[in-house]
Amino acid sequence: MDPSRIILGSVTTEKAERLKLARTYVLRVDQSASKIDVKNALSKYYGIEVTSIRSHRVRPKSRNMGLGRDMEKRHRSKRMIVTLDAKSPPLDLMKFSS
Question: What pTM was computed for the model?
């Protein structure tokens, strides 16, 4: 897997914003990415040391619209909750360095 395509973006929810105060970030990642892949990508492209990583998959949610039609309200995704080391700088996804 290409390490530059592992991290897809950040999750912006109220809880994710509260977690940033504790140096914890919630990231959307590729479906096949592992914790080791995410840790290596963060250290390589953003210069960040990671203390812990927790992962979970978000299940899709659909709604029946009638007449055999379904509407997908929430798409399938995978998220990683990353806690940074005390010495590492804050995570800024806009500063991608190769």
Answer: 0.84
